[in-house]
């Protein structure tokens, strides 16, 4: 049997030569997810890092059908493709089966694209929506989004003598999507490609819309060494900052439970966006963050244990 | 055999869509466009079409899903009015650059604020510069036939840009007239199937649509769109000739009504042209030499042809159903531009009328003609018809 590495590297739909930053984890996420499809895929891409860096005219890095329209509507575009596909099937214009995937960043998903996403999930289009979540508007240089974590320094809500950076926790996008009663929603990340691959498999097999939020550490605007992307991805999981879990037909299953959860400082240290939190006067922010993470984890455990439908 | 049916303008356009039987129709309601999507939804519910529909959550998503379906290879449509057009504007502006031949019926309605559901042209006049073909319809019959004309024009391989087919909100969309409906088979043959060269569902031939273009290519792509517009002007007449064989009607850039010997001419778009024709007939009985020119194709605009048509008219009144704040009114601007090359220009007067659905009456038109015939006009003054004192 082929190893995951062999499967993923056999076909790289997002070809080398794209202009993503050194150390960027988006290509790993994209290629792993597409590799999990046993059917041809069609991609709808929101404006953002992936779109900008993969298709500078007259070049394209895409070896699969790909469309970009604007920022906030990847889910609506995917809905249009899926509906055209249904029409073509019905009218005998097409034989192949396909999987339709929408990719958006967190700005295009949590914020400006949220309405189109919610509408498409509610209508039940069969497609997979993937947010590559780098926790801010990173394509344009680190502006705050609904995904930016508490305490992070961004250019629109900077840390300063009177500011700790962002004062709100991020939206729980996975549970929000699951609450649309879609068959499959999951949280994944870049370093655990087997987990991501398996989740994409389940998403494609779902009878209806599916959603994956993949944490995508951003070397450029989280401000860490380009060699450390996968290390930060792993730390996000080991600290319970970004638990790996899935919601199948409304029921939570946690895919990985750290034997001993690491303190959140392990994840924060070395990231420029959290540097200010290590000043003595901001110590309370880290403590508060730790408390929130632990409470969220407890809540997630309860959801899993109770099997209460989200 | 064609049949005569009593239909509202909205029904007539929905009937055209039934006969076109698109692959995908995306629906979001907005007054006064709502009956278009409602009638079409009834056709779907009763199996009169096998179109796949998407009842979306906003106009922004309506146009986005229409683009997705069209890029996928489908013949895809949506319809809107006013605020809906404004909300989807970002995506509307992107469609011509993607070269997707989407046809969108528009039921013209005033733009907020104040909120107003009635007719004027401020919605589509805000979208004249972004690369859509725009065809105005005087009545339900024209709205019906313009749908077929627009579809063949937009999908022509030398055009491949989207088209709006306009009709006046409530006045036409909700008013019932006798409409001559072609046979389904005749329409089916006329519109054929959409056969794009490249499309997303052609999975064996991967295709990238909508890439980033920087200063080295953006300008060139926009220049190609302008070429498509130039082609559209030529092909409009060719498609019109084909359609004429089926309907017996003509599809010129503009309709000329009793202007050959006219001493004064009114230029006006859409339903008000019907009122003007009645006024003209009555004034002609009284020996007044008056006439009408009604532009049908607004984008691309037929400057030269209009110039040639009106060069010997002594005085022209241009009636606009929208204001272009701080500049000359939209139609008036185009007519002024059309006349620039003439050494002896007709006298011109600009009138604004009917904003937010205010009626224009035959007597208003007659008074305008009397003013024009008196020669007391000022091309730099904007006059207002029927305004409260």
Question: Helical amount among residues of chain B, as a percent range?
Answer: 40-55%
Biggest sheet layout of chain B: 6 strands, mixed
CATH architecture of the largest domain in chain B: 3-Layer(aba) Sandwich
Total beta strands of chain A: 10
| Strand order in space, largest sheet of chain B | 10-12-11-14-15-16
Helix content of chain A: 25-40%
Strand content of chain A: 5-15%
| CATH class category name of the largest domain in chain B | Alpha Beta
**CATH topology type of chain A:** Rossmann fold
Q: How are the strands ordered across the major sheet of chain A?
A: 2-1-3-4-8-7-9-10
What best-fitting shape of chain B do the alpha-carbon axes yield?
Answer: globular
Amino- and carboxy-terminal Cα gap of chain B: 52 Å
Strand content of chain B: 15-25%
How many discrete domains of chain A? 1
Number of helices, where a helix is a run of at least 4 consecutive DSSP H or I residues of chain B = 13
Task: Give the largest interface pair and sizes.
Answer: A-B, 49 and 46 residues
The fold-level CATH name of the largest domain in chain B is: Rossmann fold
Give start-end ranges of low-pLDDT stretches of chain A: none
Identify the CATH class of chain A: Alpha Beta
Shape of chain A: globular
